[in-house]
Design goal:
The chain has about 60 residues and is α+β, with helices and mostly antiparallel strands. The protein has a domain of about 35 residues. The protein has 1 helix and 4 strands. The strands form 2 sheets. A two-stranded antiparallel ribbon has the order 1-2. A two-stranded antiparallel sheet has the order 3-4.
Length: about 60
């Protein structure tokens, strides 16, 4: 049975895990209202997705 002879050092362990970091969130901007929007989601401000209105924006009540 294969058993490691020496303990893996922190440096070697870190080198092995160097590509496991978290990638930053990609942010796009809505072409209608210029607000930041996550990709492949409709804009929460204006309700547009891919150039057409999907959801009518809710009117604010005061």
């Amino acid at each position: 049975m294969a058993v490691p002879k020496r303990r893996t050092s922190h440096a070697r362990q870190g080198k092995r895990r160097s590509h496991l970091h978290i990638k930053p969130v990609q942010v796009q901007y809505c072409p209608q209202c210029k607000q930041p929007v996550l990709p492949h989601r409709l804009c929460t401000e204006c309700g547009y997705y891919q150039g057409r209105e999907v959801v009518a924006p809710a009117e604010e009540e005061k």
